[in-house]
């Protein structure tokens, strides 16, 4: 079992958005809950679990990993993979907005806008690669076919 508050506090270590953090607590909770559902719904993430249940009423998640290590390791891995996914969900619309806006502007302004936001675009790509590597490595290391008996 994992509380949403534990997960959401881990997400706050990965993002720094003063505009978002200035929202009232209920709005922020709703946004984070939607992001959590979005991440859990991704096939690459979902296939890590033999079971997963999100209870938005009591703000808790229960899960069982396909290749469980132990309770603490499983919890740490799930916290990391989901918080990283939620950070990706936070950054993706910002990058999309810059890319779509720059196309409408066109010319030198487009290049300048994209250059100014290159770090954000690079960060998003890096976060996606990191998440994919974590999932891949976890599956490889804890694969039931290669476990030592």
Notable features of this structure?
single chain, 7 helices, 3 strands, mainly alpha, about 70% helix, about 150 residues, three-stranded antiparallel sheet
Folded structure, characterized:
The protein has 149 residues and is mainly alpha-helical. 68% of the residues lie in helices and 10% in strands. The chain is built from 7 helices and 3 strands; from the N terminus they run βααααββααα. A 3-stranded antiparallel β-sheet has the order 1-3-2. Helix 5 runs antiparallel to helix 7 (118-141).
SSE blueprint and pairings:
Layout lengths: L1 E2 H9 L5 H4 L3 H16 L2 H4 L2 E7 L4 E6 L5 H35 L1 H10 L1 H24 L8
Antiparallel strand pairs: 1-3, 2-3
Helix pairs in contact: 1-5, 3-5, 5-6, 5-7
H/I helix tally: 7
Largest sheet: 3 strands, antiparallel
Q: Please estimate the helix content.
A: 55-70%
End-to-end gap: 27 Å
Average pLDDT, rounded to a whole number, is 87
Q: What spatial order of strands do you see in the largest sheet?
A: 1-3-2
Beta-sheet strand percentage? 5-15%
- Overall 3D shape: globular
Describe this structure in a few short sentences:
The chain has 149 residues and is mainly α. Helices cover 68% and strands 10% of the residues.
């Amino acid at each position: 079992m994992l509380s949403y508050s534990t997960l959401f506090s881990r997400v706050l270590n990965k993002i720094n958005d003063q505009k978002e953090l200035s929202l009232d607590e209920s709005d922020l909770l709703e946004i984070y809950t939607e992001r959590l559902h979005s991440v859990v719904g991704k096939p690459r993430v979902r296939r890590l679990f033999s079971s997963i249940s999100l209870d938005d009423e009591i703000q808790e998640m229960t899960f069982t990993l396909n290749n469980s290590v132990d309770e603490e390791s499983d919890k740490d891995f799930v916290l990391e993979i989901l918080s990283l996914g939620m950070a990706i969900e936070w950054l993706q619309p910002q990058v999309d907005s810059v890319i779509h806006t720059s196309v409408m502007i066109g010319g030198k302004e487009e290049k300048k806008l994209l250059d100014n936001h290159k770090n954000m675009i690079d960060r998003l790509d890096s976060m996606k690669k990191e998440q994919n590597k974590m999932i891949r490595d976890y599956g490889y290391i804890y694969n039931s076919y290669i476990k030592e008996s």
